Every structure is written in structure tokens, then in C-alpha cells.
Amino acid sequence: MDKWEANVIQPELMRDKGIVIVQPEGKLEKVDFEQLANLVDPYIQEQGNLNGLMVYATDFSGWEDMASMVSHFQFIEDHHEKVKKVAVVTDDNVLSLLPSIGNHFTSAEVKHFPVKDREQAESWLEK
Question: Which of 40, 59, 84, 113 has its CA 20 to 30 A from that of 99?
């Protein structure tokens, strides 16, 4: 399991499962997406793709600035075809809408899970 000391999203790569878990806590920053790419890109280059990405969050605080938002969208653009599934694990009403929005911007299957179902979300990502 690889962890990266990103400022806000705290990414964790479960190499044996091909899953990345991000847990944003605060406003997203440009450096978060640079560090996330540095963590997952070598794995993707080696394996061809990620089985899944789990976004585990209690709320969405937005982005630090416009550069952070652009960096987030660029990360999605660069990786959307290399991630099979995205699990949004949250009880936040706004974040729970991500699957219906995300399905328009990614080839990954995107699904919402309540926080109590985190283990179920991880199992779904593995399949």
C-alpha cells in the first residue's frame, strides 16, 4: 500500500487491488492533483489502468483557487479512460450527486455509497 503526503486529499494506493482512495479534507489545491498523478501514473503505466477510485468525503469545501480547479479538471481529463470505476462514499447531499454528473465526463462507472457502506464500495471497486 502506497501513501502520498498530499496536502488535502491524502491519497492511498492499494496496489494489490488496483484501487486509489482519496479523502479530501478542506479546499482542494493544485499540488494535491500533481501528487495524486505522481502516485497513480507509475501504477497505471505498469498495469494499464486502475480498477477503481474511491472518494471518501464528509463534505466538499471546493477549491483553493482557480488554478486548483483547473488542475482537478486536468487530472480527470488525463485519467478518465484509465479508471474503471469511481465510488463516491459520502452522506453529503451535494457530493452524492457526483455520479449523475460524473457519468457525463468519464468512461468510468460512477456510483454513490453512504458512509456506512464504505466496505461495500471497496468490494464493488474490486469486481
Answer: 40
